[in-house]
Write a structure and sequence with these properties.
Three copies of one chain form a homotrimer. By secondary structure, chain A is of the alpha+beta class. Helices cover 25% and strands 32% of the residues of chain A.
């Protein structure tokens, strides 16, 4: 079975597909001056973008791991998350607190999806 | 290939099956007044429950990620873990420290299993 | 479909293969007196070792999750990482800060690969 890699950079591929499963790299917001709501929206838009590139969509998400710098921001993140997901087809999810790339990075999300 | 989702809530599915692999959401204890031993037992009982719902069992576990609020509790968690797993068929595992949903949440576990 | 487990210990399997995907447990350095560069090299050598045992190699990596005790060490880790990966075939990656097994444990990596 072949492995399909997209957006290959010096450190990682942004997208890797194998066996009908599409893995996305950990995604953070480009504009990290924004609040948790804004950063979450940016990350979810990136997920939409990469899923489309891999010919799938959020309705085919399997799992999501959400890392938050400050778990007190979880409720605010959840509001953006709930309005974004396909209500009939949400992935499994885990949300934990972790130190992220930079102090101003408030959220990082890793997902995998079916093709 | 179809995706099968179980226990769909407003934020996530508790169980997602695709391609013969069953993904469970991050699970925490319901009674978080308990010690790490008690919370671990509750989480492992939930894993048993959801795996049964997906027509599989702990002997078919592939991977486990264990998040602990306090890594000094790892040995105590391990005793409960070791008496629970199928000794002939343990999953791969990673155990790291992370901030969890609430201060009293001592453990969260994410697993995937084969059907 | 059968599950193949390798290096089964009392807590986990080091390697689990299912459906053409090989999962490795979370790996840390044996000599944790070393710097982040040395610990990263040790972990990557272990990954090479277990991938070979599972009859695959780093050019077939699908995903990597890197946990660092101190995110200020990310750039130093990245230098070792970049010289190790197959530049044409890197996995997806997420790198987050987390408390690890012992205070001197600077890095833990979890990967999965295609057979």
């Amino acid at each position: 079975m072949t492995i399909k890699r997209m957006e290959i950079g010096p450190i990682m591929s942004r997208v890797v597909e194998y066996g009908g499963v599409i893995h996305l790299c950990g995604l953070t917001a480009d504009d990290q001056s924004q609040t948790i709501e804004g950063q979450t929206q940016q990350v979810l838009a990136k997920i939409d973008h990469y899923l489309a590139e891999a010919a799938t969509s959020k309705s085919r998400l399997l799992t999501a791991t959400i890392y938050l710098t400050d778990m007190s921001m979880k409720d605010a993140m959840n509001e953006v998350w709930k309005s974004w997901i396909d209500r009939d087809n949400p992935p499994t999810r885990a949300c934990v607190g972790a130190v992220l790339a930079r102090p101003e990075t408030l959220i990082e999300i890793v997902v995998c999806a079916a093709r």
